[in-house]
Amino acid sequence: MEAADNFWVSLFSKRYFRIGTLIAIAVISFLMHFNHFSKELISIHVWRQTQTQSNIVNFYEEDMNILNPRRNDRGNGDGIFRMEFPLMQWLVACSYHIFGNSVLITRIIMFLTGLLSVLGMYYLLKNIFNQESAALLGAWAFNFSPCFYYYTINPLPDNMALCCAIWGLSFFFLWYQNKKVSKLILSGLFLSIAALCKLPFILYFIVPIIFLAQNIFKNGVTRSLWLQGIAVFSWGIFPLAWYAVVIPQWHGNSIVSGMLDNQDSIWSLIDYLHHNLISTLPELLLNYGSLPFFIAGFYFLYQKKSYRDEKFLMLLGLSTMVLIYFLFELNAIQKIHDYYLFPFFPLLFMLVAYGGYQLLCSKQSYIQYFSVFLLLILPITCYLRMQYRWDLNEPGFNPDWLIYKNELREIAPKNTLVVAGNDNSHFIMFYYIDKKGWGFQENNLTPAQLSSMISLGAEYLYTDSADMVSQNSLTQYIDKLLLERGSVRVYRLKKAI
C-alpha cells in the first residue's frame, strides 16, 4: 500500500507519533484496567480462570515439573491433569518464587503479555502492508477490542498462545521480505509455542505450508525449499508429540469431538451462528467503532484488487482453516465461549487496519475526520461494553464464596482433604477455599459416596446447599457445624471407623 498525501496519513507515519501512540496504548490500557488488577477472579468464564490459577498455584506450592499440571478436584490422588502444555502457568509460577503467590502478579504478567500481543500486531501489520500508518491504526484498534481488553488481565493460556501466534506470523512475513533464515526459525518457534499453549493455533502453520506449496508448484522441490521447510516446521514436533500423548486422556471432552458428537438441533446451531455474527463479532471481537473499518476492508480488498497480492492466498488459507475450526467447534463455542475465537484476532484486525487506512486516505475530508473520530472513541466504547464484567456483586457464582473467602480458608487446615459443592465447574469452590479433595454438583452426594470419601481421607464438608445434609441422609457422617457464613456451611466430618 502506498501512503496517501494527506495530513492524517502523514501524521501517522511520523516516528514520534508512532512511538507516542504505542506508549499511549500501554498507558490508557493500564488506566482502564487499574481498578481491576487487585480484584479476585470473577465474572465470565471464571471457572476457566480459577482452573488456570489453580494450576499456577499448584506448580508453585507442590511441584515445578512443567509436565505435571495439577488440579484441586483430585480426591486423594496427585491431581495431575494434562490439557494444553502449561508453559504460561509454569512461567507465572516461576515469578511467584520471586514476588510471592498473588493473583495481582498473575494479572500483571497477563497484562504485559497483552501489551506484547499489541506490539506484535503492530509489526505483523507493518510486515504485511509495508505501511506504518496501517500498522499503527490496526494495533490501536486491536488493543480496544472489548474481548481482548477483558481477557488481557485474566489467567488464560489463550493469552500467551495468541501472543506467540501473532509474533510467529510477524516473523514469517518479515522473513518473506528479507529472506533472513533466523526470522523463519523464529517464526516456526513462536508458532509451535502458540500451538503448545492452545491447540487451535496449530492451524497457523497453514501460512508457511501454502507458501511452500506455491513455490513447489512454480519451481518444483529445491534444496532451498527443503531447508526453509526444516527451519519453520522442525519446531512443530513438540506440539505434535505433546497432544499425541495427552489427547487420548481427554475423555468426554467436547472440544475434541466437536460436531462429530453434536447433540444440538439444527435450529440451535443456526442460533449460535446468528449470535456470533451479529453480536459476538461486532460487539466483542471488533468493537462497534472498528466495525466500519472492518466492512471497508472487504470493500477495498475487492475494489483495489488487493487479492492479487501473493500474500493474499496464504492469508485466505489461514482464514479458511480458522472458519473450518469455528464451524467444527460451533456446538462447543455456542454463544458464550468468546475466548475460543482468539485465532480470529489477527485476521480480523488485518481487515480493520486495511479498511481504516484506506478511509484515512480518502480525498473526502469528512471521511477522514469520521475515521479519526472512530479511532478516538474506541477506548470509550470498549470500556462501556465490558465494565459490568468486573462487578463484585455479580461474580458469576455464589458470591458468598468470595465474600467469606478468608474465613472459609482458615476454618480448616490448608492440607486437609475436603468435600465441596455444589459446583458444576469443579474449580471455583476449590480455588476460593484453597483446598483439595472431592467436588460434587446438584446435591449429587450420596451417603455411600461420602462414606467412601471419608475412608480415603476427607475431613471437612463445604456446601452452599441449605438442606442437602438432611435430605441426602448425610447427618450420620457429620461431627459438627464449624462455620456458617451466608449460604455456606462448613462441617467437620466424623473420622472413619
List the helices and strands and how they pair.
Elements: H1 7-13, H2 15-33, H3 46-61, H4 87-99, H5 103-129, H6 132-143, H7 146-151, H8 157-178, H9 181-197, H10 206-219, H11 223-233, H12 237-246, H13 254-257, H14 266-286, H15 291-303, H16 310-328, H17 330-333, H18 345-360, H19 365-386, H20 400-403, H21 405-410, E1 417-421, H22 428-433, E2 436-439, H23 447-455, E3 458-463, H24 468-471, E4 478-485, E5 488-493
Parallel strand pairs: 1-2, 1-3
Antiparallel strand pairs: 3-5, 4-5
Describe the structure.
The protein has a 5-stranded mixed sheet with strand order 2-1-3-5-4, with helices on one face. The chain is 61% helix and 6% strand. The longest helix is centred in the N-terminal third of the chain and has 27 residues. The chain is mainly alpha-helical and 497 residues long. The protein is globular and about 80 Å long.
The count of β-strands is 5
Largest β sheet strand count, sense and barrel closure: 5 strands, mixed
Instruction: Estimate what percentage of residues fall within beta strands.
Output: 5-15%
Shape: globular
State the end-to-end distance. Answer: 78 Å
Q: What is the overall number of helices? A: 24
Strand order of the largest sheet: 2-1-3-5-4
> Strand pairing plus helix content: what structural class?
mainly alpha
What would you report as the Rg, rounded to the nearest angstrom? 25 Å
Mean pLDDT: 94
- Roughly what percent helix? 55-70%
The arrangement of helices and strands along the chain is HHHHHHHHHHHHHHHHHHHHHEHEHEHEE
Low-confidence stretches: none
